[in-house]
């Protein structure tokens, strides 16, 4: 039930806003503009609503009694509140839900003695003392959870374009040795919307997705997914059916004619993104927010007959980085995900040193060769592993020569398993061409051909999953869990998705060795006159090492970015990334395998190419291999609309040779050169036209049968999936399904 607004207080507010100078200290005095409230608010007539800081565009408003604050757009008067200021709490809401709605901070904590971390305490409850004070540019709120022994400050500072909310981890005090902080949900109610409002959340899951407010999917679970994917130290290798991950630490709320973008600018390596709609979790608000892991945990089962699940925590002090979230109001008349993508792109270029890596009229063909694989052979009844050539250096050069002769003028070539160590899945830092693929002379002929034709070459060094050998093993090289058990990576059955126990498990390379390995790879490539490298999944995979090395995900991220920067400076061609998390974007020259779709969460209402909208015109990219898709005509049309270049996985030998090898998923990798060149000729002129442009509009019609994108240079690309027609600035291209 909506509480009745007190008439006395309405009068008070009118007097307050017309004589605002009497309520604001001189250093924070605002203009005489009226603060237009987003909703009627029920305060008492003795409470003070004041301006704590303001600039040309925005105002930070504070309600001192409860430490609720708001970010106001001075042009429109619209306010984004940290908690619902109207306190409209449905009669069905529980006390916990009411405390949550009044809370800026929710702390999850563990009790190591009891092996439990299912304990929560909220800043809006009676067990937290809150004190607010003014600081330069904003406010500082002191949260004292006296009962459990935690206290810390959070700063909320108004900058020119955003509100910055931050917590310094080093200033967190844990007074009670029985309790340890494991997680902080930071500003979970910022911008939340009640069940009467229209709007949606933009979620960067895979390519991107939208969650509509009040979509009645209360039967589903709330959305929760870790930024940059799961920590592989605590889980086996993802199987083929795993959902897409989050590559970008950002979300947005679009409500009525207003939008707010939130970026986890610090602490992103340890963050989860959460979203829920009204009717979930016992409250009637639509909410989206970040929660931050301060201590990792692990579980194991008791060896006695009870089978009890035991939880253990990282030992010692908090080992994560500081927490910082920036809230950017998106100032557009009719905002959608492309405007939020522009805002985030500006953040990356202005704050994270992202620069253009693409040229005008540039649309290369991406070719990914697989060199060799180990295959079991029987000799005198004894199973022996033997190196089997899939695409030798001479084969690769012949394929590239045929593609050139058939009109491919730009190509980016990656080459996996081109050395013996790589074929054997051992850590590799050198380019030692395998004799089973033709040896050094044949390899030099290949690289010479690539250079002469101005193609780009990226030999692959995917070292993170490995077998013992070449100086790395389970004692010196592998990741360990908090429980002291080394992490093992399972192989999964392609058809059924279960772990295949007959295949040997791989190890996970510790971030402790990243600097050594990346530096050696960079130097060896430079000596071999190789201009660029692919580092496999390391650009999209982030994990810690919780054994003796004690490396958190945040520290691992720092190691990775430092080394990416060094490689980018040493090699003219830079890095080809297989998917790219946000922290890798400033250092990569190409990105492959960007998903076309989201992770298909039950809460999602539609999919959008948010990732593509962020980086198009900045970094050239592809989606997954064309020939891996069951419907190639639709794939080509979607590639054109989203500005995705095309990529093919290729082996020269018949795919039957892959049976009973770890590359058996490449069943599609025999694909005719004639078809590759024809597909390239269809899509390349379209993508060349928009190579430097950004996506400024995107429309889906007829339940997804027609999709169109408008680019910043005025180009409109429309895909009619029902008629198999691609329209490029009025030029219609018919894609005959039988050709593909």
Keywords:
30% strand, eleven-stranded antiparallel sheet, seven-stranded antiparallel sheet, 740 residues, alpha+beta, 11 helices
Top CATH class of the domain at 95-232 and 245-351: Mainly Beta
Q: Main sheet, how many strands, which sense, barrel? A: 11 strands, antiparallel
- Low-pLDDT runs of 5+ residues are 1-46
Q: Provide the CATH architecture of the domain at 95-232 and 245-351.
A: Distorted Sandwich
What proportion of the residues is helical, as a percent range?
10-25%
Number of strands: 41
Q: What is the alpha-carbon Rg in Å?
A: 28 Å
What is shown here, in short?
With 740 residues, the protein is α+β, with helices and mostly antiparallel strands.
Characterization of the model:
By secondary structure, the protein is of the alpha+beta class. Among the domains are: 7-81, no CATH class; 95-232 and 245-351, Beta-galactosidase, Chain A, domain 5. The chain is built from eleven helices and 41 strands. Strands 7, 8, 9, 10, 11, 14, 15, 17, 18, 23 and 35 form an eleven-stranded antiparallel β-sheet that branches. Strands 5, 6, 12, 13, 16, 19 and 20 form a seven-stranded antiparallel β-sheet that branches. 47% of the residues are buried. Mean pLDDT is 88; it is low at 1-46.
Topology summary:
Elements: H1 7-18, E1 49-54, E2 58-63, E3 68-73, E4 79-81, H2 95-101, E5 105-111, E6 116-122, E7 129-135, E8 138-145, E9 150-158, E10 163-167, E11 173-174, E12 180-186, E13 193-194, E14 199-203, E15 209-212, E16 223-226, E17 250-255, E18 258-266, E19 271-276, E20 285-293, E21 297-301, E22 309-313, E23 323-329, H3 337-351, E24 365-370, E25 372-379, E26 382-389, H4 393-405, E27 411-416, H5 420-423, H6 439-452, E28 456-459, E29 465-466, E30 488-489, E31 506-508, H7 514-527, E32 532-534, H8 553-570, E33 574-578, E34 588-592, E35 606-607, H9 610-615, H10 632-641, E36 647-650, H11 673-689, E37 695-701, E38 706-711, E39 716-720, E40 725-728, E41 731-734
Parallel strand pairs: 24-27, 24-36, 27-28, 32-33, 33-34
Antiparallel strand pairs: 1-2, 2-3, 3-4, 5-6, 5-12, 7-8, 8-9, 9-10, 9-11, 10-23, 12-20, 13-20, 14-15, 14-17, 15-35, 16-19, 17-18, 18-23, 19-20, 21-22, 25-26, 29-31, 30-31, 37-38, 38-39, 39-40, 40-41
Helix pairs in contact: 4-6, 7-8
């Amino acid at each position: 039930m909506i509480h009745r607004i007190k008439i006395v207080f309405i009068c008070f507010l009118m007097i307050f806003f017309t004589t605002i100078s009497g309520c604001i200290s001189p250093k924070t005095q605002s203009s005489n503009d009226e603060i237009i409230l987003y909703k009627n608010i029920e305060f008492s007539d003795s409470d003070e609503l004041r301006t704590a800081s303001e600039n040309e565009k925005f105002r930070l408003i504070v309600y001192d009694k409860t430490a609720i604050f708001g970010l106001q757009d001075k042009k429109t008067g619209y306010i984004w509140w940290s908690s619902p200021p109207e306190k409209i709490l449905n009669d069905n809401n529980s006390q916990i839900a009411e405390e949550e709605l009044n809370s800026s901070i929710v702390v999850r904590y563990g009790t190591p003695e009891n092996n439990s971390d299912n304990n929560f305490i909220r800043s809006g409850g009676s067990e937290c003392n809150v004190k607010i004070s003014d600081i330069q540019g904003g406010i500082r709120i002191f949260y004292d959870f006296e009962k459990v022994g935690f206290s810390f400050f959070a700063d909320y500072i108004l900058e020119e374009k955003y509100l910055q909310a931050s917590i310094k981890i080093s200033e967190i005090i844990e007074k009670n040795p029985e309790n340890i902080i494991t997680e902080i949900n930071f500003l979970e109610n910022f911008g939340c919307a009640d069940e009467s409002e229209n709007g949606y959340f933009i979620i960067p899951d895979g390519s991107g997705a939208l969650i509509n407010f009040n979509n009645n999917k209360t039967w589903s679970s709330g959305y929760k997914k870790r930024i940059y994917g799961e920590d592989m130290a605590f889980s086996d290798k993802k199987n083929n059916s795993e959902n897409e991950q989050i590559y970008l630490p950002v979300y947005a709320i679009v409500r009525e004619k207003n939008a707010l973008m939130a970026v986890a600018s610090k602490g992103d390596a340890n963050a989860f993104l959460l979203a829920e709609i009204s009717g979930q979790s016992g409250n009637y608000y639509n909410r989206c927010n970040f929660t931050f892991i301060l201590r990792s945990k692990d579980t194991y089962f008791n060896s006695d007959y009870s089978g009890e699940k035991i939880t253990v925590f990282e030992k010692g002090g908090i080992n994560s980085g500081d927490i910082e979230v920036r809230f950017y109001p998106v100032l557009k008349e009719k905002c959608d995900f492309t405007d939020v993508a522009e805002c985030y792109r500006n953040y990356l270029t202005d704050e994270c040193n992202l620069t253009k890596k693409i040229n005008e009229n540039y649309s290369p063909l991406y070719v990914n060769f697989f060199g060799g694989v180990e295959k079991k052979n029987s000799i005198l009844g004894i199973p022996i592993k033997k190196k089997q050539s899939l695409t030798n250096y001479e084969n690769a050069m012949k394929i590239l020569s045929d593609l050139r002769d058939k009109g491919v003028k730009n190509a980016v070539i990656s080459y996996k398993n081109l050395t013996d160590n790589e074929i054997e899945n051992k850590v590799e830092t050198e380019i030692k061409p395998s004799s089973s693929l033709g040896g050094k002379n044949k390899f030099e002929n290949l690289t010479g051909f690539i250079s002469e034709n101005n193609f780009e070459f990226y030999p692959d060094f995917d070292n993170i999953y490995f077998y013992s050998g070449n100086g790395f093993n389970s004692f010196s090289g592998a990741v360990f869990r908090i429980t002291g058990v080394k992490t093992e990576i399972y192989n999964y059955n392609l058809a059924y998705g279960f772990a295949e126990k007959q295949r040997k498990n791989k190890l996970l390379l510790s971030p402790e060795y990243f600097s050594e390995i990346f530096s050696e790879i960079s130097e060896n490539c430079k000596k071999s006159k190789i201009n660029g490298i692919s580092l496999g999944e390391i650009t999209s995979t982030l994990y810690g090492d919780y054994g003796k090395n004690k490396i958190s995900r945040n520290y691992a991220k720092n190691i990775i970015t430092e080394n990416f920067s060094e490689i980018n400076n040493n090699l003219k061609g830079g890095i080809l990334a297989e998917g790219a998390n946000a922290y890798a974007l400033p250092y990569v020259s190409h990105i492959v395998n960007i998903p076309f779709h989201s992770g298909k969460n039950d809460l999602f209402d539609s999919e959008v190419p948010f990732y593509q909208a962020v980086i198009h015109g900045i970094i050239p990219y592809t989606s997954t291999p064309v020939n891996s898709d069951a419907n190639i005509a639709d794939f080509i049309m979607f590639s054109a609309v989203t500005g995705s270049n095309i990529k093919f996985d290729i082996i020269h030998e018949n795919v039957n040779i892959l049976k009973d090898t770890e590359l058996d998923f490449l069943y599609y990798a025999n694909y005719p050169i004639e078809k590759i060149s024809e597909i390239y000729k269809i899509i390349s002129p379209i993508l060349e036209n928009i190579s430097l442009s950004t996506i400024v509009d995107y429309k889906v019609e007829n339940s997804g049968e027609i999709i169109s994108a408008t680019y910043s240079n005025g180009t409109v690309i429309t895909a009619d999936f029902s008629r198999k027609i691609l329209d490029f600035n009025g030029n219609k291209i018919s894609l005959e399904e039988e050709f593909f």
